[in-house]
């Protein structure tokens, strides 16, 4: 269906272009009636049974603007068995054409024909005057072939198996499941679009936020910076201020389009500056003051879809202060003016003044919606940030310029007169008009509806085009009500349920309040502070469902500190537990306890518990992340604070790091985008990015030419090549590269690499598979091995045939690293040929006699010769 919608958009855009250019072809002669020429088509054709096809219908004559349409068009569909059906109620757009989705359910040939009914030209278009009779006409008949096989759609590129960065090409549509954004802390910490959320503590990069870590020695020995550690009896060095309490650092952090945005200074500092960093690489892209020291409030991705344009505009929003109002020359009140900035550059874009108050949510296209309820007087309004006509290029409704987004450089009155006009193209000119987007004649307001008077309590949660739920909880009653937000039903009361509380609420003087609400899991909770009991109510009808099967752990009564103290609902579970370090998950269908996890501290450094006090950070990809924090931690900070990732439905520990990332209560906590967690660490006040990183594999051969029958030693390395290892400090410690380690070793290894803790003695490497392509063209695995804690691996192998071998070393990746591979080659030569020695022959006896006689004769001759020589010498 999505592909057909995309085709519809493409077809209509093309037809709009063609029909616009056709204005010059209209004859000048006016006529009382005109012949029409219907169009018909079907895409795809052939089409599979049960597959969608888009039928193109209309006539060749366009209309003057998008105010006007051809109506009453029908399509006759003749089935393979001769029966017919009629597709009716078809209205074209201003191109004179449109598309109708049809799903055939029978094999065979269908026949399609368009019928255009006679009707007047609704408005003068070129030389065709208003009222000209456009004659009825029938299109040619076309055949739609329906076959068993579905027509192939463009194949989707799979999710990445290698390290990836932004930008993500728009054609990689499946990647939307992993490249999510964090525009503001979402309800229940639930962040969609992060299906590659970290399954290990692997660090991609780190960078300083401000002065952090241990202060160090001083010149004056009497300065009281050294404090006594009562547990060890040793003096411990205190650290720099972390921002707790009430001086939060790194607040308002968000992720938009693969970029991390955070505040440079503490929240109480009068100077403000925003830093923009590439989330994948840690590269700082820009750092600047927003107008007069504004603080980011949220991000926005708004999809602008009109007859003329489709695309997303992105903004950073900040609330103006008094100094900004003066700078921009705005008359207004600080807090009611919103300023938009370009996320790519930090440049100021435009402002909206006189913002209404109420509940702010995101709309289906990313619009900022503000719901304002007056429960006493019985009315409710919805304001829409994209329904301010002055944001467009023209105030003429449905003109070409009406469809163009042009707020740049403007200061807009968010609730002032809309001043929309309409041009009927019939000689009346521009006429004041309340458009469907601004029916009240005021900027932003989509509607103002009546609601029942006297609804008690306040809003708990709202979801655009669904409902808004509110209520009141006290010791005698739990009142839950809901108002419809579905288009066409706005303001209708869905329910107003009053549940009478148990008598022990009042008798026990319990403190009662609302907890978590989730429309996804159809549940709203009520908390009883002192008894530590939670009660579940349905957001579908407001009725009571259950109470939890057992109280939450001790200290669960505390509120107002770590995030998640009131509980939150994700993946069918109510998750509770913070200061006690005991995390409990209850099934939201019945309140039964499903799992318990204790964030144990083996050294018991917390005064009130054997566990780490924690705050809840993120829920995504079926996982929840939580970490140690404290309202106002003592100095020196306790060591080994836990950061934990759990399976949300089972409570199983996926990974845990001790002392790697500690959180803050009053500053910004961890956020996620592009499946990468970014967090400030209060131990050293650096910003860390956690996620799956790139690896590099090398492989080499000692002798690249060897003789058949000899062994070959294959060796290499697997290293971590994430952006963070390129800093001087790490390169100086690891001149040969940072070894890649197993997922089981990752947490301790990261504290060693990035925090200079002692090197783990039990760290293990990663598995490496070795394969060869031999001289006969056979590709085969010759063995597997595991790298050591230095990243090195080796394997001895005996080649079995002569010729060239190509060797491949492959690391298939892990939770911490994407895969990598390398190759090398060697040659095996046949052994040289060796000569065969001649054997000694045994002589028979006769031959031995002959030989002896021969020797005797030779000796005799030699004696005679010697005598002759002597005689000659004696002559005178």
Question: In CATH's first tier, which class of the largest domain applies?
Answer: Mainly Beta
- CA(first)-CA(last) distance: 136 Å
**Uncertain runs with pLDDT below 50, 5 residues or more?**
4-30, 228-235, 844-876
Derived structural class: mainly beta
C-alpha-based Rg, rounded: 40 Å
The tally of beta strands, per DSSP, is: 58
CATH superfamily of the largest domain: YVTN repeat-like/Quinoprotein amine dehydrogenase
Helix content: under 10%
- Silhouette: globular
What fold name stands as the CATH topology of the largest domain?
Methylamine Dehydrogenase, Chain H
Sheet of most strands: 6 strands, mixed
The gist of it:
This protein is mainly β and 876 residues long.
């Amino acid at each position: 269906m999505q592909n057909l919608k995309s085709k519809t958009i493409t077809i209509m855009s093309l037809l709009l272009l063609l029909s616009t250019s056709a204005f010059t072809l209209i004859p000048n002669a006016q006529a009382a009636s005109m012949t029409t020429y219907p169009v018909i088509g079907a895409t795809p054709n052939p089409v599979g049974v049960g597959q969608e096809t888009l039928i193109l219908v209309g006539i060749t004559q366009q209309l003057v603007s998008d105010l006007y349409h051809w109506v009453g068009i029908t399509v006759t569909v003749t089935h393979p068995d001769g029966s017919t059906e009629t597709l009716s109620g078809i209205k074209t757009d201003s191109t004179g054409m449109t598309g109708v989705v049809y799903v055939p359910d029978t094999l065979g040939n269908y026949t399609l024909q368009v019928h255009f009914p006679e009707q007047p030209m609704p408005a003068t278009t070129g030389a065709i005057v208003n009222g000209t009779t456009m004659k009825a006409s029938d299109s040619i008949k076309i055949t739609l072939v329906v076959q068993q096989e579905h027509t192939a759609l463009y194949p989707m590129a799979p999710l990445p198996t290698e390290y990836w960065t932004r930008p993500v090409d728009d054609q990689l549509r499946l990647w939307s499941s992993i490249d999510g954004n964090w525009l503001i802390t979402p309800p229940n910490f639930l962040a969609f679009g992060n299906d590659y959320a970290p399954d290990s503590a692997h660090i991609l990069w780190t960078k300083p936020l401000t002065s952090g870590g241990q202060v160090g020695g001083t010149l004056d020995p009497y300065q009281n910076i050294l404090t006594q550690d009562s547990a060890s009896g040793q003096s411990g060095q205190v650290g720099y201020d972390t921002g707790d309490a009430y001086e939060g650092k790194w607040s308002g952090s968000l992720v938009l389009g693969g970029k991390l945005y955070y505040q440079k200074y503490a929240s109480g500092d009068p100077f403000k500056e925003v830093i923009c960093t590439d989330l994948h690489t840690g590269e700082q892209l820009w750092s600047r003051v927003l107008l007069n020291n504004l603080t980011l409030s949220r991000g926005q991705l708004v999809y602008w879809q009109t007859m003329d344009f489709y695309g997303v505009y992105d903004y950073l929003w900040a609330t103006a202060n008094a100094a900004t109002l003066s700078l921009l020359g705005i008359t207004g009140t600080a807090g009611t003016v919103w300023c938009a900035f370009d996320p790519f550059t930090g440049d100021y874009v435009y402002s909206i003044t006189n913002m209404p108050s109420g509940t702010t949510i995101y709309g289906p296209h990313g619009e900022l919606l503000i719901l304002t309820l007056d429960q006493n007087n019985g009315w409710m309004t919805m304001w829409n940030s994209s329904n301010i006509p002055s944001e467009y290029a023209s105030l003429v409704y449905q003109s070409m310029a009406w469809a163009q987004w042009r707020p740049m450089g403007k200061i807009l009155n968010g609730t002032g007169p809309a001043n929309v006009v309409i041009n009927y193209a019939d000689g009346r000119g521009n006429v004041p008009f309340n458009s469907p987007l601004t029916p009240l004649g005021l900027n932003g307001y989509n509607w103002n509806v009546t609601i029942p008077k006297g609804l008690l309590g306040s809003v708990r949660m709202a979801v655009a085009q669904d409902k808004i739920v509110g209520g009141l909880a006290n010791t005698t009653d739990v009142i839950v009500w809901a108002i419809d937000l579905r288009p066409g039903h706005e303001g209708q009361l869905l329910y107003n349920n009053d549940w009478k509380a148990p008598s022990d609420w009042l008798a026990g003087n319990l403190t009662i309040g609302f907890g978590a609400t989730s429309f996804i899991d159809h549940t709203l909770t009520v908390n009883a502070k002192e008894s530590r009991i939670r009660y579940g109510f349905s957001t579908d009808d407001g009725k009571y469902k259950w109470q939890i099967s057992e109280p939450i752990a001790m200290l669960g009564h505390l509120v107002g500190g770590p995030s998640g103290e009131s509980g939150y609902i994700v993946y069918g579970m109510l998750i509770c537990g913070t200061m006690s370090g005991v995390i409990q998950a209850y099934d939201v269908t019945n309140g039964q306890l499903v799992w318990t996890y204790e964030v144990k501290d083996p050294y018991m450094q917390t005064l009130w518990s054997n566990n780490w006090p924690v705050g809840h950070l993120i829920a995504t990809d079926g996982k929840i992340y939580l970490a140690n924090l404290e309202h106002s931690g003592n100095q020196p900070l306790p060591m080994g604070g836990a950061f934990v990732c759990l399976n949300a439905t089972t409570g199983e520990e996926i990974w845990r790091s001790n002392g790697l990332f500690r959180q803050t209560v009053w500053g910004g906590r961890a956020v996620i985008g592009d499946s990468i967690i970014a967090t400030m660490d209060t131990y050293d006040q650096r910003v860390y990015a956690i996620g799956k990183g790139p690896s590099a594999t090398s492989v080499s051969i000692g002798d690249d030419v060897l003789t058949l029958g000899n062994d070959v030693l294959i060796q290499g390395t697997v290293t971590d090549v994430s952006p963070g290892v390129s800093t001087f400090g790490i390169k100086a410690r690891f001149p040969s590269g940072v070894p890649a380690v197993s997922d089981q070793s990752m947490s301790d290894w990261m504290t060693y690499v990035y925090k200079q803790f002692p090197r783990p003695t039990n760290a293990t490497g990663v598995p490496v598979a070795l394969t060869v392509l031999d001289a006969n063209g056979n590709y085969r695995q010759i063995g597997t091995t595991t790298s050591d804690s230095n990243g090195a691996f080796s394997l001895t192998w005996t080649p079995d045939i002569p010729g060239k071998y190509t060797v491949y070393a492959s690391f298939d990746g892990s939770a911490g690293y994407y895969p990598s591979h390398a190759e090398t080659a060697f040659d095996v030569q046949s052994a040289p040929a060796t000569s065969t020695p001649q054997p000694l022959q045994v002589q028979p006896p006769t031959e031995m006699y002959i030989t002896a006689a021969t020797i005797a004769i030779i000796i005799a001759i030699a004696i005679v010769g010697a005598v002759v020589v002597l005689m000659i010498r004696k002559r005178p």
